[in-house]
């Protein structure tokens, strides 16, 4: 068993561990989460258009109207244009959104089981029609993009910008979250244990901290006992992240990086800290605490005698 001691933590009770270092990042926020203090609105870019407005008393020569193309010529032109331009990929990806405040600082975290996660969770996301296509003819059980892992010790979910879980269909053992173009989302991890937990997350196959390919070797955020971690975007610096926003696949961060093979999935790997004992789940502790020394106050009747034929 290999103990990995790394750390990168965000200024607060959440830590982000970085490979090759002996400390982790800890995130700060009033809610003890990796959540910014309020996202800046997306800057709207306006394009300047050059306009020529002739004076009222100035004569303007009219350009000759273009000759209409024959149906055959128009069809050939459309075919040539469609062949030259690559077909747009359907569905949603995750774009590099607006800048969000998220301060971090160093902390220490040693994994109990090296690069073997204690638990993992995955969410596949798409727009409404994409989710229907992914599900095919299978029965869809609609609920929320929320899953309990490690025997209920941890809860992982995808939420909107207001903290509400995204709507999701469950089919074939997968959770299919429904997103909308332009909407922002957050990865939320709730720690129900009295121990710290390290969280390594990926979006579209890319690590949310380094932007490189997702790997269990990468280090992540450390969630304090009974605390909640909210990952709002790709880490841009020690003080900011870039918000997760649903958008066209060709505009996604992964696709623009030339790494679009895994667009459409969010992954979370969770690691327990060295020296912690996870055998005692909340359910097991509650069972012990509510044990009754006198479960039955009255004597039960004796068992009936078996019927005998003489």
Describe it for me?
- The protein is mainly beta and 310 residues long.
- Helix content is 11%, strand content 35%.
- It has helices at residues 71-84, 128-135, 253-256, 282-289, and strands at 4-6, 8-10, 14-17, 24-27, 92-101, 104-107, 109-111, 119-126, 141-144, 146-149, 154-160, 167-171, 174-178, 184-191, 197-203, 206-207, 221-223, 228-231, 233-235, 240-248, 265-272.
- It is globular.
- The model is unreliable at 1-14, 18-22 and 29-68 (pLDDT under 50).
Keywords, please?
twelve-stranded mixed sheet, single chain, 4 helices, mainly beta, disordered N terminus
Shape: globular
The stretches of 5 or more residues where confidence is low (pLDDT under 50) are 1-14, 18-22, 29-68
Give the N-terminus to C-terminus distance in angstroms: 67 Å
% residues in beta strands? 25-35%
Provide the helix percentage. Answer: 10-25%
Order of helices and strands: EEEEHEEEEHEEEEEEEEEEEEHEH
Number of β-strand runs: 21
- SS field, number of helical segments: 4
**Radius of gyration over C-alpha positions, nearest whole angstrom:** 28 Å
**Which class do the helix and strand fractions yield?**
mainly beta
Give the mean pLDDT: 79
The biggest beta sheet reads:
12 strands, mixed
């Amino acid at each position: 068993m290999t103990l990995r001691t790394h750390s990168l933590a965000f200024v607060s009770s959440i830590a982000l561990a970085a490979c090759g270092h002996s400390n982790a990042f800890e995130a700060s926020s009033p809610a003890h989460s990796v959540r910014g203090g309020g996202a800046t609105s997306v800057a709207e870019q306006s394009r300047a258009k050059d306009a020529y407005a002739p004076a009222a008393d100035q004569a303007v020569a009219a350009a000759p109207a273009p000759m209409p193309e024959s149906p055959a010529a128009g069809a050939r032109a459309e075919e040539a244009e469609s062949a030259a331009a690559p077909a747009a990929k359907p569905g949603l990806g995750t774009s590099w959104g607006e800048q969000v405040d998220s301060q971090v600082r160093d902390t220490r975290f040693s994994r109990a089981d090296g690069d073997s996660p204690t638990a993992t969770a995955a969410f596949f996301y798409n727009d409404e029609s994409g989710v229907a296509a992914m599900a095919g003819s299978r029965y869809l059980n609609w609920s929320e993009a929320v899953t309990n892992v490690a025997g209920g010790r941890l809860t992982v979910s995808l939420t909107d910008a207001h903290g509400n879980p995204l709507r999701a269909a469950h089919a074939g053992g997968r959770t299919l979250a429904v997103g909308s173009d332009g909407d922002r989302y957050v990865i939320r991890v709730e720690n129900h244990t009295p121990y710290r937990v390290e969280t390594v997350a990926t979006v579209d196959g890319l690590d949310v901290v380094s932007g490189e390919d997702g790997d269990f070797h990468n280090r992540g955020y450390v969630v304090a006992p009974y605390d909640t971690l909210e990952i709002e975007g790709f880490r841009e610096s020690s003080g900011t992240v870039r918000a997760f926003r649903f958008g066209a696949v060709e505009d996604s961060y992964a696709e623009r990086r030339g790494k679009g093979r895994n667009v459409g999935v969010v992954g979370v790997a969770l690691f327990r800290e060295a020296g912690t004992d996870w055998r005692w789940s909340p359910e097991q502790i509650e069972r012990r605490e509510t044990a009754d020394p006198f479960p039955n106050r009255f004597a039960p009747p004796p068992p009936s005698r078996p019927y005998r034929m003489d």
